[in-house]
């Protein structure tokens, strides 16, 4: 008998004050490290008058240490004439580096020492274990090949004892191959984008009329919000238990995921990183119970650590203990600040549309994009991806019923219509399309 192992690491059940003590020790060590090793952060810390010896609490840290933005890094790239101005170790100590997704502005990079990789693999192993990946699984891993995540996820799955890993790229055009592999090799556990699993399900249904998709029992889904009802549909219609993942691949390779309680996503690195929620307008801590911008200090890292890095993602913190017993904090990602769409005197975000669609029988698990114009519009312009099984004659009627449902739920006029295609960035459907 294999002993039952409810968590991957004892660090996931530490008492809150022990977690906080580790974070304080970690950020103080990082400040010393950056003062010595980082031209980029060292100059910023000296300019702000930071004295690491005067940091006696996490509150002191937040008050003394300036926030960092991606633009600060891009400016430093130009100033230092280097793609890695935040590199704190000699180049020969770097074992892994990779580009961000680069969806806006100049490409940035992150780097890892061997020890950084080992710790990140450990964090990722906690994540996989939390989502139910186990040694007997055949793991179908769809991941953008050039990212550090591609190597780290593979190592982490192997660390928890998974032997057979079917690794593939992650491209909307390759969905037919993924479906074929699912049916032929029968992997039991999938990691893919929300849009990808939806496309795989639609492809399988259009091809063979089947509601099942290979032998998957579970999946980690990433890249977009997923409504609770949409998640239940995956279980009832495809027999797949899904766990959402969100986070910070391009700069950190750090992610949060749901556990079996599905009550927010655990931040698996609570003892190895400092996560803050701030009011994006003032930079001060977000008031308790309100949304805040996620700010990360990955103090475990030595090659390219980040100091109070603004992610531009809005999160809420879940309070109270989780039924799974982990003490790591839980968050829900709401949206990127840049995804705000002004409509009829209000702000609409894609995660709200996902939640409302999820509550509608007709709209559940449909991929969508919102159209944003240079000036505010009186109604929300919503484009839905037409499922291949939907007859042309039915599309207008269905779009009308979805518009009515969403108008009622969002409290503003909505005009929905189906399109045969929606634009992608990487494996993700573009949720907000700017049109003039
Ligand atoms: Zn939990």
In short:
The chain is α/β, with parallel strands linked by helices. Helices cover 33% and strands 24% of the residues. The radius of gyration is 22 Å and the shape is globular.
Protein described:
The chain has 436 residues and is α/β, with parallel strands linked by helices. It has three domains: 25-66, no CATH class; 114-335, ANL, N-terminal domain (Rossmann fold), CATH 3.40.50; 340-434, GMP Synthetase, Chain A, domain 3. It is built from eleven helices and 21 strands. The chain has helices spanning 16-37, 39-47, 58-64, 70-80, 114-130, 148-159, 175-185, 194-208, 228-238, 350-358, 392-410; strands spanning 94-99, 109-113, 138-142, 164-168, 189-193, 218-222, 241-248, 254-257, 265-267, 274-278, 292-297, 309-318, 330-336, 341-343, 346-348, 368-372, 380-385, 414-419, 424-425, 428-429, 432-434. Strands 4-3-5-6-7-8-9-13-12-11-10 form an eleven-stranded mixed β-sheet, with helices on both faces. A four-stranded mixed β-sheet has the order 18-17-16-21. A two-stranded antiparallel sheet has the order 1-2. Strand 8 and strand 9 form a beta hairpin. The longest helix has 22 residues, at 16-37. It is globular. It starts with 15 loop residues before the first helix and ends with a strand. The model has no long low-confidence stretch (mean pLDDT 94). Bound molecules: zinc ion. Zinc ion binds next to loops.
